[in-house]
Amino acid sequence: MENMRRIIVGVDGSEGGRRALQWAVREAASRGGTVQAVIAWRWDGIEGRPVIVTSPSEQRALATQTLAHEIESLPEHHRGGVTIAGEAVEGRPGDVLTSMAADADLLVLGSHGHSRVWHSVLGSVSEECVRKATCPVVVVPVPREALQAAAEPALRA
Predict the structure, then answer these.
(1) For residue 87, what are the contacts with CB-CB under 8 A and spacing of at least 6?
(2) Gap between the Cα atoms of 155 and 157, Å rounded
(3) Which residues are CB-contacts of 90 (< 8 A; sequence separation ≥ 6)?
């Protein structure tokens, strides 16, 4: 992978997506590459999540806003002079990401660290991408400490 030039990274506003973006930018900086951050959106909603918008244009705007926020929130010292482009694409996340990565050198995803039960009910975008991608895939885990810290407020409520 010495000549890696283009890295696709899935971004979704989660801690896992944030860590994947940071990892992808560091990797691109070390290899002289670029990063294309991609967020997939669907108007029909994602199973198990409440609908918070009332039209496809609102859903697209929300996805675009989330993506822009994640890129802008990346600390300058993490950027390392890397060009980061962003794109909000309509479709299922696994399909969108593998399609966007078809001619990329690497696809980077964040793990949400869900339990086996969560995974068996909702499936896994990371698992789908690993099976379907035509380029190498890196899945960046969320450290156990971060998962526990995120769960603690819910446990206190």
Answers:
(1) 36, 37, 38, 39, 67, 100
(2) 6
(3) 40, 41, 42, 43, 56, 60, 96
pLDDT tens, position by position, 107-152: 999 987 655 554 444 458 999 999 999 999 999 987 766 555 655 5
Phi, psi of 64 (to 5 degrees): -65, -40
Average pLDDT, the chain: 84
97: nearest Cα among 34, 18, 12, 16:
12
Q: What is the pTM of this model?
A: 0.81
Q: How far apart are the first and last CA of the chain?
A: 47
CA angle 17, 67, 79 (to 5 degrees): 70
Q: Would you say 39 and 91 are in contact if contact means Cβ atoms under 8 Å apart?
A: no
| Dist. CA 30–CA 69, nearest whole Å | 24
**What element of type H or E holds 94?**
helix 93-100
One-letter amino acid identity for 102? A
Q: Which residues contact residue 136 at a Cβ distance below 8 angstroms, ignoring those fewer than 6 apart?
A: 1, 105, 106, 107
Q: Do residues 138 and 109 make contact, with C-beta atoms less than 8 angstroms apart?
A: yes
